[in-house]
Amino acid sequence: MRSKDIFVTGNGQLQVCQCFREWDFLRENYRLYRFLTEVEDILNTTEDEYAFLPKIRMLVRQLITNSYWLQTQYLEPGNKTGTSVKLLYDELGFPLTVQIVTFLPGVTSTIHNHGTWGVVAVLKGQEKNTFWKPTNTIESKDKSEYKNNIELVGEQIIFPGDIISFTSDAIHCVEAMGDEPTVTFNIYGETNSSMRFEFDSITHCARRF
């Protein structure tokens, strides 16, 4: 079965996009610095997430196809949180976050958005993404909290080789599935903190995250 490329939007809808054969992405000496330069070049040409996310997904697939060292870069999850994050690149003024995230089986995130676009590739294990859409948003006076009903839209389990991308307003939660830790390669744009929220499906509140 071919790996999947998935695109998720703010209404919780997902599109399974065309995915090419692995050997179409083979390149000699394709390294992280080249990947980051090519991502930056794409972002400099357009601010339209619908236009640049498919291109960045292809670059991520190119990177994970040619850079086996990514498979070895994860940290063991902490006993208390069940998660770990390894930052792969950090430069003052560079507007991208590039990291390897590890979840122990059964660990579930909060329901959240990222306040920016994101692309996530599964390197090991399985990850269930559950998608939501917002309804009837009411802002509080201090703008720190919103009454925000969210509606469950669907879910998708992604496997090694699958890549999923999100627009800035996409809402989801993730759960590590299976019997082994889930390891993912993640790249995000520059976060707009005023637009990043954590959602509670019981109290219908959205708080800055």
Describe the protein's architecture and organization.
- With 209 residues, the protein is mainly beta.
- It has a single domain, classed as Jelly Rolls, CATH 2.60.120.
- Helices cover 14% and strands 41% of the residues.
- It is built from 2 helices and 13 strands.
- The chain has helices spanning 32-43, 49-66; strands spanning 5-8, 14-17, 83-89, 97-103, 111-112, 118-124, 126-139, 145-158, 163-166, 171-177, 182-188, 197-200, 205-208.
- The chain has a 7-stranded mixed beta sheet, covered by helices on one side. Strands 5-12-13-8-7-10 form a 6-stranded antiparallel beta sheet, with no helix packed on it.
- Strand 7 (126-139) and strand 8 (145-158) form a beta hairpin.
- It is globular and about 50 Å long.
- The model has no long low-confidence stretch (mean pLDDT 89).
Précis, in short:
By secondary structure, the protein is mostly beta strands. It is built from 2 helices and 13 strands. The model has no long low-confidence stretch (mean pLDDT 89).
Characteristics:
6-stranded antiparallel beta sheet, globular, Jelly Rolls, 209 residues, 41% strand, 2 helices, mainly beta
Number of helices: 2
Mean pLDDT: 89
**Second CATH tier, the architecture:** Sandwich
Strand count: 13
Shape: globular
Strand fraction band? Answer: 35-45%
Report Rg.
17 Å
| Main sheet properties | 7 strands, mixed
Mind telling me the CATH class? Answer: Mainly Beta
Give the terminus-to-terminus CA distance: 37 Å
- The structure class reads mainly beta
**Topology pattern, helix = H, strand = E:** EEHHEEEEEEEEEEE
Q: Using the coordinates shown, work out and report the CATH topology.
A: Jelly Rolls
- Biggest β-sheet: strands ordered side by side in the sheet: 2-1-9-6-11-4-3
